[in-house]
Amino acid sequence: MRLRVRLTDSPISHAGYVFATAVGLTWGFLLSTGPVEHRRGLLVFQGMPKWAFGRGGACVGGCYLTDRNTEHRVLGHEAVHRRQWRRYGMLFPLLYLLAGRDPLRNRFEIEAGLEAGGYLPSRRPARRRTTARMPRGASGPSNGR
Q1: 139/12 Cα distance (integer angstroms)
Q2: What is the C-alpha to C-alpha distance for residues 21 and 82, in angstroms, rounded to an integer?
Q3: Which portions of the sequence form the region Disordered (predicted)?
Q4: Of 11, 29, 36, 92, which sits with the fewest C-beta atoms within 10 Å of its C-beta?
Q5: What is the CA radius of gyration of the chain?
Q6: Confidence band (pLDDT; 50, 70, 90) for 61?
């Protein structure tokens, strides 16, 4: 009989995700000075000191630790990291480090979305400018008549 050990999407990776979430909960509850919310499948700890995370925030298991970077698109990016934690468990930090510090080449940041993570400018079309309408009865600029 051959024993095959699966390390991704398995009970082993799930146990790693649970452990990482416990670490994130502890870190968040000890250091957070802002609100704690459940959004997009994440426990979002706001008011974290800037030294406690890199860039705009850090996803540790099912917890997102940040100062106040909680835009909807950013939380979507972090929700992908949560799924990566679930898939890889405690292998995720090692795999993330091996993928490199450059987010533009890091496969995990690319999968999570570089624009949503704030690594690239948004390609969303700019909002159309609307011309201001003059109130009824107001006269416009004089044209010399």
Answers
A1: 74
A2: 9
A3: 121-145
A4: 11
A5: 22
A6: very high
